[in-house]
Design goal:
Number of strands: 8
Order of helices and strands: EEEEEEEE
Helix content: under 10%
CATH architecture: Beta Barrel
CATH topology: Lipocalin
Number of domains: 1
Radius of gyration: 17 Å
Length: 144
């Protein structure tokens, strides 16, 4: 019996560059189809090779100019299927300590990542009994 050849189908995804990040508060409908979405422009850059076959990256918001927070993430890939993306946006000066987590998949032959996001919910004030995290879908599309 012959050993099966390793699967190699070369899904390519380079996270460096300018991206449009569209977020919605629905998990059932793609964000661009909803009237209530948030759209941001972000710039991401390489931070070297990742330990899971992909790349590490980091970045920040470009617009709107008043948007705060920084990004860090990693792509996961071992020459099989599509690349997975995990990214964290954090804004941590006291008293905020605010985080959003994005997890998605690369859509082959495009410069688009499709997935879901969650965050810690309301900022660090208010009645703790009513604070809960938000969640929804996101699309990340390269613009430049």
């Amino acid at each position: 019996m012959e050993a099966a050849a390793a699967c190699s189908d070369a899904d390519t995804l380079d996270m460096e560059g300018f991206w449009e990040l569209t977020q919605s508060f629905s998990v059932d409908v793609p964000p661009e189809l909803l009237p209530y979405t948030s759209v941001f422009k972000v710039k991401l850059g390489s931070a070297g090779a990742g330990s899971h076959g992909g790349m590490l990256f980091e970045g920040s918001f470009v617009s709107p100019e008043t948007q705060v927070g920084t990004f860090s993430g990693e792509t996961f890939y071992h020459q099989r299927g599509v690349q997975l993306v995990q990214m964290v946006m954090e804004y941590t000066p006291e008293p905020y300590c605010y985080y959003q987590l994005f997890c998605g998949r690369h859509i082959r032959d495009s410069q688009t990542v499709d997935g879901g996001w969650v965050d810690v919910g309301a900022p660090g004030h208010g009645d703790p009994s009513v604070l809960s995290g938000y969640f929804g879908r996101f699309r990340l599309r390269r613009t430049e």
